Amino acid sequence: MTNIEKSTARVLSGMRPTGKLHLGHYVGALQNWIKLQEQYECFFFVADWHALTTNYADTSEVKQSCVDLVVDWLSAGLDPERATLFIQSHVLQHAELHLLLSMITPLGWLERVPTYKEQRENIKDKDLGMYGFLGYPVLMTSDILVYQAQYVPVGEDQVPHLEISREIARRFNGFYPRKVGTNAADPKRDHVFPEPKPLLTPAAKLPGTDGRKMSKSYGNSILLSDPESHVRAKLKTMVTDPARVRRTDPGNPDICPVGDLHKIFSDAETLAKVNVGCRTAGIGCIQCKGWAADSVMRVLAPMQERRVKYEDNPKMVWEILEAGSTKARAVAEKTMTEAREAMNFSHDYEPPKQTTMAGTK
Ligand code: TRP
Ligand code: SF4
Q1: What is the pLDDT of residue 1?
Q2: How far apart are CA 264 and CA 45, in angstroms?
Q3: What does the angle CA 344 – CA 171 – CA 141 come to, to the nearest 5 degrees?
Q4: In CATH, which of 3.40.50.1240, 3.40.50.620, 3.40.47.40, 3.90.226.10 is domain 3-205+314-342?
Q5: Ligand 1 in contact with 137 (CB < 6 A)?
Q6: Residue-by-residue pLDDT tens, the chain, 361 positions
Q7: Least CB-packed of 44, 101, 112, 164 within 10 Å?
């Protein structure tokens, strides 16, 4: 694929380091990132500062979680030759931009974010009444704008955050227009920040073993790193169409979580066998789950082969991230030079313009 010309448009996305990735993360995000790295200039980062917004009290595992996350990324096929992979907290420009943007972001915009209210009400085991938690969409906006990214691949749940990002970009550009003609590169661009657009990841419905959405907190997930025996054991416990009580009862794969798995992972031939076999009671659920496990393993096996070398060598993973962070810093600093200049906080000293009473210019 290297012979295909990449678009120059910039794509950025991030994930919080919250533990090992499961199939839901793969189908909902990672698989898309792996495609995007062939088509765009991509920046993918570990949002370790974001982890603090809800987990500020115990930070002992953040660093290891970052490495674990990136081992999952690399195993799944993200390629440091094709995309810049880095850690948020290693690029301090995110923090500087966050500070500047926090000055122009109205509180009302943040208080109206749906996930803010929801999480404050639902998460009772920790106190989320923190400044950083409220300001989380501003940090997310800085992550995006500091790379002047045009596209942000995200799930449906992040769309309201991105809407705020667009509004903050617009507000910054309105207060602080770029000084046209002052920069050699792109002299006619009158704004510092493009308004980032979501690239919606087509949300395939991926159920967990209990039939609910696959999620770490439900304990119903299949990890990318689960060995084959675990995948098979987990699938054996998966719920099925409740109408199939006995082996002789026909079922309907369209209302069965195992059927959903087949739709995502199985080839046409297997899908046809499932469709006919289930509806005519020609196959049993055990057999059907075995085929689903085969299909899932066809995706996971190559990842697990690749992961050995990264798991054995976390130092190498760290080096990949350091190289990525260095590249990211250079791009982020270029943006900050523009942003500071627009806000009259440039690090260069320019003597004040002469304004005399005599009306000379
Ligand atoms: N908010 C995202 C999440 O919780 C992670 C994230 C942080 C992000 N900064 C970002 C995603 C910037 C896209 C762009 O999943
Ligand atoms: Fe579900 Fe397969 Fe059983 Fe049909 S045969 S109910 S699709 S597990």
Answers
A1: 46
A2: 27
A3: 95
A4: 3.40.50.620
A5: no
A6: 444 678 889 999 999 999 999 999 999 999 999 999 999 999 999 999 999 998 999 999 999 999 999 999 999 999 999 999 999 999 999 999 999 999 999 999 999 998 888 888 888 888 999 999 999 999 999 999 999 999 999 988 899 999 999 999 999 999 999 987 666 667 788 999 999 999 987 777 799 999 999 999 899 999 999 999 999 999 999 999 999 999 999 999 999 999 999 999 999 999 999 999 999 999 999 999 999 999 999 999 999 999 999 999 999 999 999 999 999 999 999 999 999 999 999 988 878 777 666 544 4
A7: 112
CA distance 286 to 327: 50
244 C-alpha to ligand 1 centroid (Å): 41
Domain extents in the chain = 3-205+314-342, 226-308
pTM of the model: 0.92
* Distance from Cα 15 to the centre of ligand 1, integer Å: 6
Which of 232, 254, 258, 286 to mutate to test ligand 2, by most ligand atoms within 8 A of the CB atom? 258
Length of the chain: 361
Q: What tokens appear for 13 in the block?
A: 């996305």
Q: How many Å apart are CA 153 and CA 37, to the nearest integer?
A: 12
CATH number for domain 226-308, candidates 3.40.50.1220, 1.10.240.10, 3.30.70.20, 3.40.50.300: 1.10.240.10
Compute the distance from residue 293 Cα to the ligand 2 centre, in Å: 13
Q: Give me ligand 2 centre to Cα 236, in Å.
A: 11
Residue 57 CA to residue 123 CA, distance in Å, equals 15
Q: What is the C-alpha to C-alpha distance for residues 289 and 291, in angstroms, rounded to an integer?
A: 5
Pocket (CB within 6 angstroms of ligand 2): 240-241, 244, 251, 253, 256, 258-259, 274, 278, 283, 285, 288-289
Q: 140 C-alpha to center of ligand 1: Å?
A: 6
Query: Looking at ligand 1, which atom is closest to the CA of residue 50?
Result: 7
Two tokens, residue 305: 């082969």
CB within 8 Å of 276: residues ≥ 6 apart: 282
